[in-house]
Batch of 3 targets.
Target 1
Amino acid sequence: MKKILYLSLLLIPLFNQAQIISTSDAAVLFSGDEHYGTARFEALSGAFGALGGDMSATEINPAGLGIFLNNESALSLAYRETKINTSFYNNTIKNSDQYLNFSQAGGVLVFNIDDNSNWRHVALGFNYSIVNDFSNSFIMEGNSGIPDFLEDPFLNSDSNNSNDVFYNQVDGQSFINTTSGLNDKFTFSLAANYNDKLYYGFSISTYNLDYNQIADLAESNHDGFGNTLDASLIQNLFTTGTGFSVGFGIISKPIDAVRMGIAYRSPIWYNLTDIYTDDLQINVSNNADAFTDVTDGIFDYKLSTPSTLTGSFAYLFGKAGLVSIDYTYKDYQNTKLRPTAVFMTENQDLATNLRGASQLKIGTEWRFDLMSIRGGYSYEQSPYNNSLSSENLTGYSLGLGYYIGKRSKLDFAYTNTKHSQPYAFLQASDAGNLDIENSRITATLVIGF
């Protein structure tokens, strides 16, 4: 039993740092946005900052609410398939999962102003949307050849004991990672239309975040003489909290064919709570005793994400079609964790390892009587310094829309994004790699009234 207890002291520090998402990485994750929205919004890859006239456009530029001429409501359903190919020391595993969500719901009310006023109307909007769907899972397996779980593979602190067992040969390592939960938001918007030339908007968003990660790390070792050691650590992290942000935007229409927009979204200010448990187990073949150690904890903290600035341009070819471009800049170095005294190291890491990231979205739509055909392209830089080009997010989108009444329509969209990222689940070994592909089909029912 003495040997087992000694081994536990060696394993615990490594295990606790090995696999669960770090607070710094969680801060970056919670700063992201997967751009769920209406099918029309997604079909144009979200390039709606200057276009407006769509419930999800208010998430980019709240002034877009002023483009609406009539009351409207929208409801969206999204089906997502995520493929994650993992590789670790030349061993590749293909993982695939499917998910279904109500991804968006909202409505706008338009209030006309006196015909003699240059202020044509004001609009009030409410929209629910998913910011991030955290549901994913993958398995990573391989053999680094290094007993990563052990700082010292002896099982006894008495180095003069010739009976000590030296577990320095690795049979294999495996890591199973499962995440779930949502970050969703409710946005309330107000916009005004001045003379059909200038549109002003303001919004406030409230966020509800629930994130759960279960990470299962295991390694098998032996001494070459029939003695084996199996060690595993199961970590469970649950993060919950709320947040809010505000947004401002302007859209200008100097001529009927041209729209230009600029929008600012404040940081999201979160109040978060982490609840975690660590379950460490060690089993040795030549010792009847097994070691189990369970630790848990709870911690409250605050997170402020980077603000975003978006510039937009759209050109309309009458009623035949349009082309729209959005450029967004987000400086991830402004990500902050508080209390500052507690997170000095993490905040320094964020400032050192992160950078400002650009995002480009291009969309187009062409109308044929009652039908519209849409497409788009998106590119988003990785927020990490020294990242590879493959870690940047690239995507494309396609879509169709069909009017089923004077003011009602059905919209459909298909989006596809790809990127890769390293994942270091063992401290002493090289990082594994994840190739991630997300495909999403969204259907939206729009009803005007």
Target 2
Amino acid sequence: MKQKHLEAYMDTAIRFSQCSTAKRLKVGCIAVKNNKIISIGYNGTPNGSDSDVCEDENNKTLPCVIHAEMNMISKLAKGNESSEGCTVFITHSPCIECAKLIFQSGIKTVYYNEEYRDDAGLDFLEYYGVHVIKLKRT
């Protein structure tokens, strides 16, 4: 994939992160296959939720919040596209739970813009052979 396309895809993930209603950390994620965006996700509350609040009064993420990667993969599960062999672009490196889901979904490459506070997700992906690449955008 050409550098200009890598940057454009990451810029798209960053742009979609702004759709999140989270106040503390807005995360965006896109899946690309055969040079086409096949799914988009960002962190937020479940579809149809009565509230779009993502944090409690202590600024901790509420348990109901769905991560960007989970949203992106669940949208794929509802459609005709497969995540097998695709590349994802995420604004922040995945947490361990999302890393497990990424691996089990057959995603082969993960580009991320910034590190998440815990690198267990990156360690997991690298251990299981998923290509992980930092692609810093501003």
Target 3
Amino acid sequence: MRILVFPHDFGIGGSQLNAVEIAATLRDQGHECVIFGNPGQLNGRISELGLEYIEAPRPRVRPTPSIVKALVQIIDERDIQILHGFEWPPSLECAIASHLRPATRHVSTVMSMSVAPFIPRTTPLIVGTEAIAHHERESGRSIVTVQEPPVDLDHNSLGAVGSTDAFFERWNLSHQAFTVAVVSRLAPELKLEGILAAIKALPLLGSNQPVQLVIVGDGPSEPEVRAAIESAGLGATPHRVVMTGSLNDPREAYAAADVVLGMGGSALRAMAFEKPLIVQGENGYWKLLTSRSLPDFRWHGWYGRGDSLHAGPERLAKILDQLIADAVLRERLGQFSLETVLEHYSLERAAQIQLEAYEAALNSSPQRANERLHGLASLYKLANYEFRRRWSNLRGRTIKDDDFNASPIVTERPQVHRVGAE
């Protein structure tokens, strides 16, 4: 099969790492895969995996006509069978290009916490959680597949990293301190609240053992994070915060940690390093990964919503105190983390799901009239979205749903009632 994979962004992030790592797995199974997009940090991983890369034109207003034109040219030159867009801008551009070349089919993956409504309803859609799939089917989509975010278990492991001494020395970390790591983009949507709560939690800890919070990542909210560190009053405590900025290879941070805070793909990579995981969310949400909490995470994703924003730091401090005091518990939870990713989140499993989605798309009969109707509806929704975004910008307000992480789909997992059970 000849496949073009188009990630939405070439920074180091979960969705785009999934895109290239699954592509490499499919390549190893005998398929032809090429990566398309604008250059960035992700190119290092693409080169490391030995994947072919084609640079895309610079995007303007999405969908960008020059990008669609480039996709059509690649289809013609290479007889591409599948265009696979990740997140909404590449998904729209792949949909338009495949409409211009009907023998080529398109597939969309959305690993954001909700799906942009202007992705055409005829587009075969892959999402990351059962909750989002349920919501999309209820709203009228018929071709929805669940692919839980995979982890490259060869690349992400304690054995692959080896010693973390150089990491400790580089960032002046103490081996005697308890190390809490978070690897995250410093962005207002989803991420910022948890990072600020983690900083505020440090003075609330009951343990006398020094704790070092290592924050790996950068982004537009970095000034707010630095201001929070300054105002946290850590000078009167044995605790500290270390900001490393963005790292091309953050694996040493996972390996160095005693406990990891995270959500989404970062949470899963932490689990591959055999670490206890505290899942962060919004509105004060923090939950420790255990055998009891796992089914909920597999339903709605590695994220959650709490009931009180202000309660977040205290909740996190309570969980951290429990883990700091109990090395046996940390070891048991770390082993459970690793067992979970080995069973459910391998690249091979994700690649098989993706390949089945490709085969279904190729075997489907195109319904051009229906596709045109849904395409027009999508253009209307996109125009409405752009109008609201620009109008808000003119009024000095920013719409937060640019990546559709600002309105997550989080629904309760259906309960199974057994006959005769209380």
